[in-house]
Amino acid sequence: MLTKIFCEIDDFMQEFEEEYRKRLLSNKEERVEYNSRLALSEVMSILVYYHSYGNRTFKDFYLKTVCRNLKTCFPNLVSYNRFIELIPTALIPLIAFLKLKRMVKSDTITFIDSTKISVCHNKRIKRNWTFEGIAEIGKSTMGWFYGFKLHIAITETGELCGAKLTKGNIDDRNEDVLDEVLKNVSGKLYADKGYISKKLFEALFEKGITLVTSIKKI
Questions:
Q1: Which residues on neighbouring strands pair with residue 164, listed in sequence order?
Q2: N or C, where is the chain less crowded by C-beta within 10 Å?
């Protein structure tokens, strides 16, 4: 399985990485480059393989499985702390790979949720120029943040149906976002209280999707 995952990701990155590098934000003097002896496709392969392996925590998986049993597969392994630093660099390529190569259709049970991606501490929002005009201030169940939201829909077995990265101030119930995230979905859609909306329920129902949420407290 690992060999198949790596070959598929590496083939994808041969086409994607060059164009991705051109679009990275950089300062006027020098572009920030990926700098590690572990290839980006290897980082992505390890992350994908972790979710199909069964370890309870990623640290346990990396130290006990990758470092002990997969050294021949990844001869240029880095320390656990260094690998954690590399994960953010693989986020966008990984989303692109999953969206373009691994989306599945779901016509029975689907789950949807969003998660925040903060780009800086709240105290430094006014001094953050890198994402000025791109990121926005939003609010999650954990409070206010500055950055983006990742909206994801998965099947009951954990397979990806849809994903979209938006600015942090985009509502979870935004119909344009949901149209893209749920284009491969029909049947029952389970969500948290953040998706409660009569208008949204009716709009999704017309598209063959039954929205199921918990009851909002009065």
A1: 151
A2: C
Nearest to 207 by CA among 191, 190, 184: 184
- Express each pLDDT in 133-175 by its tens digit: 889 999 888 889 999 999 999 998 888 898 888 999 999 999 9
3-state helix, strand, coil in the chain (%, to 5): 45, 20, 35
DSSP E strands: which ranges in the chain? 109-118, 136-140, 143-155, 160-167, 187-190, 209-212
Residue with tokens 């003097």: 29
Spans of all domains in the chain: 2-101, 109-212
User: What are 140's strand-pairing partners?
Assistant: 143
pTM > 0.90: yes or no: no
Q: Please give the Cα distance from 95 to 114 (Å, whole number).
A: 14
